[in-house]
Amino acid sequence: MSTTAAQKFLQDAAVKSADLMHREVIRRGMESYDAAHLKGRARINDWEAARQKCQEIKREAINHLDRYLLQFEEKITARGGHVFWAANSEEACTYVKDLATRRGVRTVVKSKSMVTEEIHLGPALEKAGIKVWETDFGEFIVQLREEGPYHIVTPAMHLLRGQIATLFQEKLGQKIESDDPAYLMAVARRVLRQAFFSAEMGISGANFLVADAGVIAISTNEGNGRLCTSVPRIHVVVTGIEKVIPRLEDLAVLWPVLATSGTGQGITTYGTLIGGPRRPSEADGPEEFHVVLVDNGRSQLLADAEQREVLHCIRCGACLNICPVFRHVGGHTYGTTYPGPIGSVLTPHLNGIKEFKHLSYASSLCGACTSVCPVKIDLHHHLLQNRRNATEAGATKSSERLMFRAWRNAMLHPSIYALGGWSMRKALRIVYGLGLAGSILDPMRVWNRYRSPVPLPSESFRARWRKDRAAN
Amino acid sequence: MPQTKETQTEKAQTENPSRDQILQRIRAGLRTAVLEPAATASDRIIFAPIDNPLERFQHECVSNLMECALTADSAASARRLAEVLQSLPEGEIFAQDDPSLRRLVELAAPGRSIRWSSQGAPAEASQATVTLAEALIAQTGSILVTASCGGRGASVIAPCHIVYAKIAQLVPDLATALSRISQERILDHNSFACVISGSSRTADIEKILVQGAHGPRRLVVILQTGT
User: Fold this and answer.
1) Which of A83, A133, B94, B173: disulfide with A195, CB 3.0–4.6 Å?
2) What chain B residue is nearest to A284 in terms of C-alpha separation?
3) Within 10 Å of residue B17's Cβ, how many Cβ atoms?
4) Rounded to whole angstroms, what are the CA distances from A196 to A191, A193, A199?
5) Between vectors from CA B14 to CA B13 and to CA B17, what angle results, nearest 5°?
6) What residues are paired with A294 via a beta bridge?
């Protein structure tokens, strides 16, 4: 019997949250993020106004998505670039694969892009016999480990430097002499340098598609994104249709806010704007420029009166970093391309509510995610809505429905409620008395498995209430 | 360029079968009414105004891990450039082919092997690149470069990128720089532009900052205050 995504999530969450080493690594990583993020926010005069502005920019863009996408497309094609509209992962992968095959591409260098993870572009190209190098340092590491990114901004944040040194020693076939991060980066730089200068195609994502200027905007720190889009003969951008923004000037707020929320920087090192292939007068740059606009379920979200704003997301990772659930179960446990609160909201829309509704329950609804979101997405309410939608779609188990029916009955009939409370107290007293708390016979097993039982009251709340009232 | 033309024609014939379907889905989705609060951010000051752009620029350069050297005139700029170049290992230098830079570089590095941007992209093994900038941005300690500043690789391939700028190029903030790009239609004449704020870096291992990743480890701005 195959395990469902929900079962796997629970199993992995139990293992990860009890993994003290993992907890320590994440705690340290998040502590340094927290400090940088708060410092970064303090640099902005009115952070709330900045969030509001970003929300308004993205709302304006999403509410006129067709118009802005067409404006973007017109500019790109006028400069000799190509725009391909992909309805789903398959269409996007096929377009890039066919282009690579037609142009005799043997090596591809990739900069970080969550959309390429979402559509599984890397494996699709490898299957066609094309070598794909992930060139973001974190992505390079997780690619060598043959796993997905742990986090949408810092893909290898679950690893310690020693593990990375061992990995390099095993996979790169060279002697690794130190686990100093600067040394390890230098090793990766040397290896990837050869890739950059031999690859025929560079693939990047885009943080924004600027409609009025007709350019893509990429934010990167390492410079790998710069090399991917400068050196190879062909540059392919793979991005989601929701990344569009109306005006170039919008970046004056979006860039600092994205950097602050993503890493705590005032601005990302390279804010790159690209609008087409190399012009005849220019010293270098790709001869071909392709933009693949991926829908893959996004356009369906526009029709969702409550959740359209989920498309405002700029993938900064702030909601992952603040989330108490993410901090305990880690990124891989989610089993999705996008982990954390935004992933729990988005995945049911992209991959089906039935299989991924459990993610909506992987939340205490504390609202920390909503409080940090730089485009003010009401994340925790969307989790609640997903729960409701799953129930309305009949995605719940019959046992669950039966239990809720019984609960409803008890709530409507005080005598039934009292009887239920009385029998539960009696039953639990016996179970606990026999030392079976947390065992399979314990109705409170879910709680008691990992905790000592809450002491049982001797009488019901209502009985105590009556007594206290009489005494006064 | 005939080859570009050819690819364009080919594109025109390339099937884009889902385009109309996606646009239809978008338009259908947008017909759904969504309740939204009115806009309110317009009158609030998001970023504090910048009183002294030069001071702010210098301050931000420090936090961006880049070097900023103020020089009085072009002779001083040439001396400064010579100092930076002498501190680097032997090897070819790449420079943007611009009359003012030709004068400066020939003064600063006589006899050194130089590849000019008119000869193509910088070599992989270039020791340094020397370019101009379109603007400097005080708010974020950034330089704005475009493809006209020696191309795309000119600001990323070598381990050291040296920018020669004049004080008149300093603008207070990102908003000013971006609206200038729009107004002067800079992106219609350049396939590429980049706001660069410091040397390349990573913090992908244990969130520890490493200066110098795939791009330059050193970014030096020679900022000339006089003529």
Assistant:
1) A133
2) B121
3) 9
4) 9, 5, 6
5) 115
6) A86, A240
Evaluate whether A63 touches B30 at the Cβ level (below 8 Å): yes
Distance from CA of B141 to the nearest CA of A (A): 9
Residue B7 has pLDDT above 80, yes or no: no
In this structure, which topology does domain B53-224 adopt according to CATH? Rossmann fold (3.40.50)
Among the listed residues A60, A45, A50, the one whose alpha carbon sits nearest the alpha carbon of residue A253:
A50
CA distance A185 to A172: 13
Query: Which residues lie across from B161 on neighbouring strands?
Result: B129, B219
- pLDDT of the residue at B35: 77
Q: Inform me whether the C-beta atom of residue B27 falls under 8 Å from chain A C-beta atoms.
A: yes
Q: Residues 6 or more apart from B96 whose CB is under 8 A from it?
A: B116, B117, B130, B131, B132, B149, B150, B154
* Mean local confidence (pLDDT), A308-317: 97
For residue A451, how many other CB atoms are within 10 A of its CB? 10
Tokens at A305, concatenated: 């009166």
Contact present, A319 and A151 (Cβ < 8 Å):
no
Residue pairs spanning A and B at CB distance below 8 A: 294
CA geometry: angle at A255 spanning A252 and A258, to 5°? 140
Residues B23, A38: Cα–Cα separation, whole Å:
40
Query: A86: pLDDT confidence band, cut at 50, 70 and 90?
Result: very high
The residue extents of the domains of chain A are 1-43+315-396, 47-296, 408-471
A1-43+315-396: CATH class = mainly alpha
B36-A360-A389-A245 Cα dihedral, nearest 10 degrees = 30
Facing residues of A319 across strands? Answer: none
Beta-sheet strands, E only, within chain B: 67-71, 93-95, 114-116, 128-132, 135-137, 142-146, 160-166, 170-171, 192-196, 201-202, 210-211, 218-224
β-sheet with B128-132: strand ranges across? B67-71, B218-224, B160-166, B128-132, B93-95, B114-116
Contacts made by residues A427-433, CB under 8 angstroms, sequence distance 24+? A428/A453, A428/A456, A429/A456, A432/A456
Residue B4: pLDDT over 50: no
Residues 6+ apart with CB under 8 A from A258: A207, A219, A268, A314, A316, A374
Q: How far apart are CA A205 and CA A219, in angstroms?
A: 10
Distance CA(B108)–CA(A472), nearest Å, equals 95
Tokens, residue A312: 């405002």
Report B:188-227 residues touching A (Cβ under 8 A): 189-208, 210-216
Q: Which three-class secondary structure state does DSSP give residue A135?
A: coil
Q: Kindly determine whether residue A137 and residue B205, on different chains, have CB atoms separated by under 8 Å.
A: yes
Residues of chain A with Cβ-Cβ distance to B118 below 8 Å are 283
Kindly report the CA angle at A80 between A78 and A83, in degrees rounded to 5? Answer: 85
Chain B residues close to A34, C-beta within 8 Å: none
Nearest to B193 by CA among A273, A325, A213: A273
Q: What are B46's two structure tokens?
A: 């998001």
Q: Fold for domain A47-296?
A: Rossmann fold (3.40.50)
The amino acid that residue A338 corresponds to is Y
Find chain B residues with C-beta within 8 A of A164's C-beta.
205
| Cα A324 to Cα A32: distance, rounded to the nearest angstrom | 16
Other Cβ atoms less than 10 A from the Cβ of A392: the count is 10
The interface predicted TM-score (ipTM) is 0.94
Q: Tell me what the mean pLDDT of segment B183-193 comes to.
A: 97
Global confidence as pTM:
0.93
